[in-house]
Input
Amino acid sequence: MAKVNVKICMGTTCFVMGASQLQDVIDIAKRRYGDDVEVEGCPCLELCSKNSEYSKAPFVKIDNVVISEATIDKVLQEIDRKLKNGK
Output
């Protein structure tokens, strides 16, 4: 099975809107999923500036799925779904 890749936007808007708390996903994912999941922060996903559909920060991208108004629970639920369904 391929790894699930998680990118947490750490751009200014996302950081202010809650991405700072999402950094906990890095530790949680390592404990819960081991090497099946790779989590990293990135400078900016540039989602809020491209499309009004993505106007609700913070953003997390899990493989090709974008989560707006991301929370730790939303991110973990999507990771669980992807792992259960084999991506």
About this structure: The longest helix spans residues 72-84.
